[in-house]
Amino acid sequence: MSVATENLVRNAGGFSPLNTFSLLLVTALSLYYLYWRVSRRRMLELAEKIPGPKGWPILGNALEFIGSPHEIFMRVYQKSEEFGRLAKVWIGPRLLIFLTDPRDVELILSSHVHIDKSPEYRFFKPWLGDGLLISTGQKWRAHRKLIAPTFHLNVLKSFIDLFNKNSRETVKKLEKEMGKEFDCHDYMSEATVEILLETAMGVSKKTQDQSGYDYAMAVMKLCDILHIRQTKIWLYSDYIFNLTKISKYQKSLINTIHSLTRKVIKKKREYFMEGIRGSTAEVPEELKSHKYELSTSTKTTTLEGTSYGQSDGLKDDLDVDDDVGEKKRMAFLDLLIEASQNGVVINDEEIKEQVDTIMFEGHDTTAAGSSFFLCQMAAHPEIQERVVQELNEIYQGSDRPATFADTLEMKYLERCLLETLRLFPPVPIIARQLQQEVQLASDPNLRLPAGATIVVAQFGTHRLAEYYPNPEQYNPDNFLPEKAANRHYYAFIPFSAGPRSCVGRKYAMLKLKILLSTILRNYKITSNLKENDYKLQGDIILKRQDGFRIKLEPRKFAGTVKA
Ligand code: HEM
């Protein structure tokens, strides 16, 4: 017998410690797998009935999520068209169910029970902590109750002058791009960060040594990283992620972001100690809009038909009566600092988390929304001219700043904005973790299992032909009051809806109207590109992978604004 054969025989006959360990490991893993399958029996049983693409053993459909953000986005969208309004995918052991039918979407979003965010939101934790976007339970309820009134219409009206001032500054900055093709998203990002600093945070942007642009760029890169983590299953583990180079890069980006947050809070506290409340940003005398309110008050302005971003029939905690006994409402950071003085409702760390949350949610979403709007104006010159005609009628040759009453008159512009948010919702999906089973409204034979992640895909909902005839076409008349009134409320949800709706939706709509109308009063926007040319990518916030490229020409009409 050769030596090799002798070894084989010895190894086959005896039990080395390694063999014993392997045997125990295999047994333990098998038992665990069995337990895991049994404990998930109900989930698997219900999931079996839900349609979805075929997957691989163990991996499920994880391979579908490999590729560039644009490729992933388009693949998921095409698959969802194939499977209709309900589709399941497995990413390894995780079950994701995509919903687009407004009747089913309503079951999830209107519920006070299904408010838990999906596990993917935990990747935001090092950045946003337990801020409003990701917290849940009692903490979320208490902080939502505190924060929602700070975005009440009465507070927002006090921001009009700052919206005007910053919009004019943006127009001035855009001058250097005249005649060239450029990406307007950078300008929109910078503007939205700076407007947030001066309004919700109440500090002058001049007090920051870091520009809004640097902050916005850090947020954009951080979103790229979070998207990579959400789509690469092997990076789900913090342990593995922390070994990678991107983890180090993430830390440096979060540092940049948090250093702005810390400075803002420190500044605001100093003002608070000095007894200063409200925004410290200065507005030139000629931009104080109350001086012009009288001249416009003869118009028959009414809140009726002004949607503030959701179907008229829907109400949430932002829709409380407008004149609650003349109670003085405070802006976001003023109120948080005041509340923290007794430390009961919110402590210092929690303030930081909420400031980070509002700075992120409040800037990247509106930057994408306004950039898509400008691209749509460029792609549809005839619609742009109708918007400008409406502005002409409102301003009658004056270069005065916008008043609140003017924003109510911008009805066609508002329809164009809503239509932009329909086709290109800046938040294209919302994910919730289901703790209880739910029977579907669209098909009572099907139940969503507890433990599944429900992906409300508003990008798909907004393109259902049943609610929007010719759904791929940009048609602002989809938002004529009579058309909107006859649609399912949850067929239009760019700001989500229900108890966890966007707290900034009224803020966003008002600010966007002033910013975009100011740009259109100054520039004609052009482009050779149509919507079909857009390469969409849905990494957290919907963007154009090819950039938001437009050209500007000076607009010579009687209402041109002096920037
Ligand atoms: C066009 C602009 C905006 C869009 C499309 C938008 C959309 C949304 C959506 C879809 C959600 C739900 C997200 C989810 O459940 O995962 C949300 C939540 C939120 N948004 Fe916005 N948003 C916009 C602007 C703003 C602004 C300007 C602010 C603040 C100034 C803001 C603050 C928030 C906050 C704090 C939440 C979390 C609310 C909660 O969970 O209670 N958003 N937004």
Automatic annotation (TrEMBL):
Molecular functions (GO terms): heme binding; iron ion binding; monooxygenase activity; oxidoreductase activity, acting on paired donors, with incorporation or reduction of molecular oxygen
Keyword ATP-binding on entry: no
Cofactor(s) needed for function: heme
Keyword Transmembrane attributed: yes
Residue stretches spanning the membrane: 20-36
Gene3D superfamilies according to UniProt: Cytochrome P450
Keywords in alphabetical order: Heme, Iron, Membrane, Metal-binding, Monooxygenase, Oxidoreductase, Transmembrane, Transmembrane helix
Binding site for heme: C502
Family: Belongs to the cytochrome P450 family.
Name the record gives this protein: Cytochrome P450
Native organism: Ceutorhynchus assimilis
